[in-house]
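Researcher: I'd like a structural prediction for the single chain below. Treat it as a standalone chain; there are no partners to consider.
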Amino acid sequence: MDVTELQTDSRTQILVVEDDPRMQKILQRVFREQGYHVTVCGDGQSGLDAFRAGRYSAVVLDLVLPNIFGRDVCKTIKSEQEDMPVIVVSAITDVADKVLLLELGADDYVTKPFSPRELMARVQAAMRRRQKTSAITTYSFGDCEIDFSKMTARRGGVSITLTAHEFKLLKYFVEHAERVLSRDVLLNEVWGYNSYPTTRTVDNQILKLRQKLEPESAEPRYLRTVYGAGYKFVP
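Model: Treating it as a single chain, here is the predicted structure.
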């Protein structure tokens, strides 16, 4: 297992999963210069092993990795620790791949080549969002019962399946109940982007939540549209 500098202080520890030795050195330098300790793993399996063995503030993850692909590493990390910030750093620019990663729970996506300052800003923003996350673990509205810590959901006593990102979006709505949230705010705070190829990403995700949670998805009672402004959650 290619792992360096395994530390136990989660407040200052960054896990980097990247197989390119040159990029490993760049990422190490970026974070060390800001006072972080860095654990570097060269493949997906060793990355998961290190994640399970240590305590981290964030994970910086490449997509194309030996043994286990980055998107599967992301999915596993989020299934085991939903609030762990995962920032994907990849040369892949395909929009479909970005959408998939976000739906699996990735907090941000930085395309190579990148600005070290931009990468650091995005990682630190993701960590701040984690620190601000409410202590809400369970929540009920209508006939829906949501357990955010266990990532389980029931409607009318029947289990329903939500993706990691649907849980994340719903929790943000719950934490900001009755507040009108614009698409740009949701993209920035939930997806981690200041800009994104299309705000339809938000619309499509909310449509899926309505289909799963609303009595009548065409006439939503809880996830309401505020025309010209955005959306708001009314419990």
